[in-house]
Specification:
Helix content: 25-40%
Strand content: 15-25%
Shape: elongated
Radius of gyration: 35 Å
Number of helices: 23
Length: about 625
């Protein structure tokens, strides 16, 4: 051992570390809890490393205490100590690990921290680890003895331009038989972290499932363990009860209901990770937030990393739980979260497993699946629009209100097809009640055809795409042409023999002249049996409901609708009999349009003119 090894040695930080520490010391964040998570995580890593190295060299563990982490608040001295009996560090390791940012972040982090309004968020995402302690400490002393070594070293810094390395005093060496002790001399505004309840709160939130015991050692009283030291998701399913899962769900999700579905498994192979996921039985308050943020927490080797890793697609954002990877680095950054190939494979595999589990639940436990569908059906249907790979599965999972009943699966609808029926028919609108009274249902109802009634806003989006189920196309009753002639009517009536009373070409010409530019086209309807008129959209454009939603969001213009008329209806035949160009023709033509708008839940373009027109026709009818 050289003289330089035994003497106190002062060394500057790497340039990026100095810049980072300046930001830590001179910036004020609204929350600083993250420092304790990082130091406890580092201590857990040290214990893990010793456990691994001891496989080849059992003597490293010796006959000392079991691996554990201790947190020691000392109010009289104003210090908070985090100690572990893990692998420890030699002199050069202290310099390498605590003197360079390469061990716990990237140079890019420093520039991002400068720009960020919320430094805490970045600290948590980038995991700068040890350096975050300078947010709360004016001075840090690290005492460390590597397992199997006799030398004990201290590392000291006040967060300035450098640090000191020196041989530990006899007292310090006596305290650290193996591992690392970090003593934080807290700033005056950080003394709250000396309170036992604050320490327990942070450990409970971030580190409860670290596998090593975390002991709180108060100045007075006996040390006590403050974490469970058991990651439930790492345990075998055979060891756990329904009550265990319920408690885990309520803790992880901060919920009070019972889970409607539990998914617990371990993936082995190229990547290893444990999964514990739950589907709630009630709708959370933030389900329809614009950012569609998920709530599945990412752990790495039982250390909480983030709940913002987008581990599931947006349409599964109601799922709560944990994914715990054995392979990802603890200091995984936001860029890595987005682009890491391991995480991409985990995302894909977990999403597929969740959808498969929902399929099993739908088949074997209809009651609990119904709870999920009632609460999250509208969210799951977002996947039909977004997830081409799983679209068929999601369509099969979907449950619909139809003209026949509620919670009908497409499989049931297809099984009840009428003779010669080849398409699945649907109608989109803003409420089930209005859809049930829509005149567009009349031709289908006359044939006993079951029609899907779609009233969730997302329905207007996923139905805008060409869609089929088991080879059966989905067809809108409010868009494009409709031909149901091959499907027999329930009353056996032959519509071909029921000649219309109005002349088609002449009537259409008169109505189109009266309406002018209010409609794009007027045509005879094959949808209507008793109503006078309805509005439909062209087969090549967006549906009227989708246009309405986009217009409300200022994201699109409304196109002119197509007016379909029932040539057998008395109001239409009255137009044919009236004198062309007369006030009666104009009033009746406009009334056909306006009543169709009202049945769609829309106001007439000019409500006052509509009222006056209706009054004229009523008085005229009264003679």
């Amino acid at each position: 051992m050289t003289t330089s090894d035994t003497a106190t040695h002062t060394q500057p930080f790497q340039a990026e570390v100095s810049e980072l520490l300046h930001l830590m010391v001179h910036s004020v964040y609204s929350e600083t809890d993250i420092f304790l998570r990082e130091l406890v995580s580092n201590a857990s890593d040290a214990c893990d490393k010793l456990r691994y190295e001891a496989i080849a060299s059992p003597a490293l563990l010796g006959e000392g205490d079991a691996l554990k982490i201790r947190i020691i608040p000392t109010k009289t001295a104003g210090t908070l100590t985090i100690a572990d009996n893990g692998i420890g560090m030699e002199r050069q390791e202290l310099i390498d690990h605590l003197g360079t940012i390469a061990r716990s972040g990237t140079k890019a982090f420093v520039s991002k921290l400068k720009e960020a309004k919320d430094g805490l968020g970045l600290i948590g995402q980038f995991g700068v680890g040890f350096y975050s302690a300078f947010m709360v400490a004016e001075k840090i002393v690290v005492v460390s003895r590597r397992a199997g070594e006799s030398d004990v070293w201290t590392w000291t810094s006040s967060g300035g331009s450098g640090f000191e390395i020196a041989r530990a005093s006899d007292e310090e060496a006596a305290r650290v038989a193996r591992g690392t002790e970090i003593v934080l001399h807290l700033k005056d505004d950080a003394k709250k972290y000396l309170e036992a309840f604050e320490i327990e709160r942070i450990v409970g939130a971030y580190s409860d499932n670290i596998l090593f015991p975390i002991e709180l050692v108060p100045e007075e009283g006996e040390p006590r363990q403050i974490n469970s030291a058991s990651a439930l998701w790492q345990r075998s399913k055979s060891e756990l009860s329904t009550e265990d899962y319920k408690k885990a769900y309520q803790q992880i999700a901060s919920a009070f209901d019972d889970p409607a579905m539990t998914l617990h498994y371990r993936a082995e192979g190229r990547y290893s990770y444990a999964v514990l996921l739950f589907a709630p039985s009630t709708k959370p308050f933030d389900l329809f937030e614009p950012n569609r943020k998920g709530r599945v927490k990412l752990y790495v080797r039982r250390v909480f990393i983030t709940d913002d890793a987008d581990l599931l697609p947006g349409y599964l954002r109601f799922i709560r739980g944990v994914v715990d990877s054995e392979d990802l680095p603890l200091n995984i950054s936001r860029e890595m979260l987005q682009n890491n190939p391991q995480l991409a494979q985990i995302r894909k595999a977990v999403a597929t497993r969740v959808v498969n589990e929902l399929e099993i639940l739908a088949e074997k436990d209809a009651e609990n699946f119904a709870k999920i569908w009632d609460a999250f059906g509208a969210v799951l249907k977002e996947g039909i629009y977004e997830d081409f790979e799983r679209r068929e599965k999601l369509l099969a999972l979907s449950r619909f209100t139809t003209t026949t009943g509620e919670k009908r699966a497409l499989e049931d609808v297809v099984a009840d097809f009428k003779p010669n029926q080849t398409e699945i028919y649907y109608l989109v609108g803003d409420s089930i009640e209005r859809l049930k009274s829509s005149p567009r249902l009349e031709a289908a109802t006359a044939r006993g055809i079951e029609v899907l009634l779609l009233s969730d806003p997302v329905d207007a989006f996923w139905t805008s795409m060409p869609m089929e189920f088991e080879g059966k196309p989905l067809k809108s009753l409010s868009q494009g042409d409709l031909n149901l002639d091959l499907i027999p009517r329930v009353d056996d009536k032959d519509e071909a023999k029921d000649e219309p009373e109005a002349d088609e070409a002449a009537t259409i010409a008169v109505i189109k002249a009266a309406l002018g530019e209010r409609v794009s086209h007027v045509k005879a309807s094959t949808r209507l049996t008793s109503s006078a008129s309805c509005l439909v959209a062209d087969s090549q454009g967006p549906s009227r409901e989708l246009e309405r939603i986009l217009a409300q969001q200022n994201r699109g213009m409304r196109t002119k609708p197509i007016l379909e008329i029932n040539l057998r209806h008395p109001m239409v035949t009255a137009i044919t009999r009236a004198q062309a160009g007369s006030k009666t023709v104009d009033d009746l033509s406009l009334l056909l349009l306006e009543q169709a708008q009202i049945l769609d839940g829309e106001l007439p373009e000019d409500p006052a003119a509509f009222a006056a027109r209706l009054n004229r026709l009523v008085l005229q009818g009264l003679g």
